[in-house]
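Lecture 7 notes: from sequence to structure.

We start with a single chain of 229 residues. Read the sequence below before looking at the structure.
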Amino acid sequence: MSFPSISITLNSKEIDRKTLDQELIAIGRDMDNDIVINNLAVSRCHAILQIRNGKVTVKDMASANGTFINGQKIEESVLEQGDLMLIGKHILKLELEEKPEIPDKQGRKEIDDGTVIFDAETRDKFLEQMKTEKESADPRLVVNGEDEIKIKGDFFTIGKRYDADINISGLFINEHHAIIQKQKDGSFKLINMGSFLKPTKVNGNVIKEKILHKGDIIQIGNYRIVFSQ
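Now the structure, written as tokens:
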């Protein structure tokens, strides 16, 4: 099995190449990132790559200088073959594995399979019902026994950055201290992005990453966050 890769170029010279062989890849200046770019124009945790179902998505982590795809500043974007990503002074180029073409079958017939076609009113009714059920099923985080916040989307951030999904403050709290990432199977993984001076704990244990379960207690500094699903 082959994986997509990222080439890293500085001043028109390729200085590194990384295989994207895991689902979540952090890019930044700190040494604990998966792709380390040691340049002051790059934020400590600058961007996150997510590889899922053959699709590569990049999410800017509120970096100081921004993330650019083919010259356009982005917050989140799906990458295509050959896309150029600018982080600081470095250019990162995505190279996807080539997939063989599958020839069309000849003589394919369309058959009546008994599918019921909804009218617009019935379709909209079911769509609204599905939306309501999905929203009610969204997992929640209860912060210090008071604020209840729904987890929506594939990424959910916790930190002192003003636009974090859960905004927390305190000594040694990072701008993005932890990330909650939705997994393929619908579960949620907590990933520590903070320093050892203020570790992320689950049920009293320091973690680097952990699949969350109902009732798990996340502790960051003076904040107690309960995962409810």
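The chain has one helix and 22 strands. Keep this in mind for problem set 3.
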